[in-house]
Each structure stands twice: as C-alpha cells, then as structure tokens.
C-alpha cells in the first residue's frame, strides 16, 4: 500500500490564486490491477494554461491538472516495465495508478546527460508548442522578422531559438532586465524590458522599423493591441496564450483589432499543441537533436518539494521563472 499525496482545487480562483485555494490530500492507493502500473512522480510541471483551464475544465475538489515525468515503481502492464520513465497526465499527484492510456514513454534513446525534466520543457509540450506555432500556424520563412513576447518563458525562449535556426530576425520582450540579458545570450537580435521602456509602441518600432511578418503571442491584452499596429501587411499572428488576462476578476474590454486586421489584411489563428499530436514522435526527435547540437539552449526554474506545488504555480504567474518552471520531488 502506497500513501499518495495530491493537491486539489479547494476553491475556484477569484483573481490571482491564493494558498487557501489549494488543499493537500493524502490517500492510500490500492495495488495495481492487471494492465495497470503504479507511478511515482519525479518532476512535475506548472504551466500558465492551468489557470484558465481550471475555470473551464475543473470543479472544486478535483486534483489540479498537469503533466509530470514519473517512474514506474510497480507494473502489471508489459508495455511499461518497472524502472522506466513516462510522461503522465496524472496532475498534481505524488503517486498514481494508470492503465497506460494516459502515458507516453520517454524516447528510448534519451541521452544520459540530459535531465528527464526537459521532457516537460524544451523537449516536451512547450518545445512542441513553439515548433508547431512556428511551422504549422505561422509558416515562418527565412529572412522574415518575428516578434515573440513572454520570450524568457518556457515556450517563448524556444520560439526565438527555432526562429534563429530558420534564419529569421527575432525580437523578444520580457519583464525584467535579467530576462532580457538571457534573451541576448540566446541570440535574439533585439530584446527589451516592456515594463521599463517609455513607450511600447516606440520600442517595437525601433526594434524592427520595417515591421513584423510574424507575431507569436503569449500575452494578449494591451501588448497585443499595440503589436498588431506594427505588423506588416499580410502578417501572421499565432495566438498561443493570453497570460496578461488570466487573473482578471473582470474581463478586459477593447480596444478591438478588427480595423487594423482588415486594413493590414492580417491572419490571426489560435491553437493548442494537441492538434498535431500525430507528429510528436518525429518532432521530439528534432528538438532533442537541436539540443544536442547546441542550437537550442535550456534554462529551468526548479522548485524542490511536492509540498511547494502551489507556491511554484503562483510564482510562475508572477513571472518569477526564466525558462521552464518545474517542481522536483
């Protein structure tokens, strides 16, 4: 009998999440049945999408949603031997029983010198999100100019690096000078702190006077309104996130982008990474190859201790992380 811990959504978030919105639950798990495995979390992911998804897909008392890298510690399923590692959609749980349908084995040739935590980051969902946003949504071409905001986050930093691999000019924005320095280390052509520039509009113009062919939007809200004015005619916008609005108790309204989109003949498309799930195996191999070749660099913001899941999540929403935010058990 294994004692499992899980973090549940005790109360739906009203504005910014609070510690009292979460509750730690402890329960004894039964032995796995035939076809099942017992998992032990090694690394857990905290991601911005959890904030809006909790309002739409969860009810109070549910275990917080999310993915983790887990180790198989008991198995009655030959597809998942004891000691193997998987990416699991078990949520915020220290241990879980699975029938295998929600598990993805880590690639068999995962390099020994690459942390398994990157299966939640650059060689996982955020990396895939960046890749599919660039290739499937934007259709980014060599010599084009790309704008990406929240550029030091889990998705944004990979977006910029893939765009550089493709021979593009990349402009990134972030909310601290330390993050801006990191973007320059990664090879971004231009980067600035959107919180300290006198004018976001002028900063965007200065970074790319000719305008932007593509915009990978992780932020939404006011930033997006200003950025749309800087797009070239027939520009393309991939809408990946809207973190500036996730914690609003009252929804933001206007200004509305329709006239700008009409006159500039812009194309804007929202997307979620699972649309291209059938390509994941090949895509993860590409991301790993770029990592091993040094074309993609990684930084993680690791919080230690399962008990610190809520704090790690709230810190992410405050922008405390550079790179992927991960909790190590």
Summed up:
The chain is α/β, with parallel strands linked by helices. The protein is built from 9 helices and 15 strands.
Provide the fold topology.
Layout: E1 2-9, E2 22-29, E3 37-45, H1 50-57, E4 68-75, E5 85-88, E6 95-98, E7 103-105, H2 125-138, E8 145-148, H3 156-165, E9 169-174, H4 177-185, E10 190-193, H5 200-207, E11 212-217, H6 221-228, E12 231-239, H7 258-264, E13 267-270, H8 280-292, E14 300-304, H9 309-317, E15 324-328
Parallel strand pairs: 8-9, 8-11, 9-10, 11-12, 12-13, 14-15
Antiparallel strand pairs: 1-2, 3-4, 3-6, 3-15, 4-5, 5-7
Question: Would you kindly provide a written description of the structure presented here, covering whatever features stand out?
Answer:
This protein has 329 residues and is α/β, with parallel strands linked by helices. Helices cover 26% and strands 26% of the residues. The protein has helices spanning 50-57, 125-138, 156-165, 177-185, 200-207, 221-228, 258-264, 280-292, 309-317, and strands spanning 2-9, 22-29, 37-45, 68-75, 85-88, 95-98, 103-105, 145-148, 169-174, 190-193, 212-217, 231-239, 267-270, 300-304, 324-328. Strands 3, 4, 5, 6, 7, 14 and 15 form a 7-stranded mixed sheet that branches. α2 (125-138) crosses α3. The two termini are 20 Å apart. 42% of the residues are buried.
Q: Strand-residue fraction?
A: 25-35%
The separation of the N and C termini measures 20 Å
Helix content: 25-40%
Rounded radius of gyration (Å): 20 Å
- Principal-axes geometry comes out as globular
Which segments are poorly predicted (pLDDT under 50) over 5 or more consecutive residues? Answer: none
Query: Structural class, judged by helices and strands?
Result: alpha/beta
Task: Give me the number of helical elements.
Answer: 9
Helix and strand string, N-terminal first? EEEHEEEEHEHEHEHEHEHEHEHE
The largest pleated sheet is described as: 7 strands, mixed
Number of strands: 15
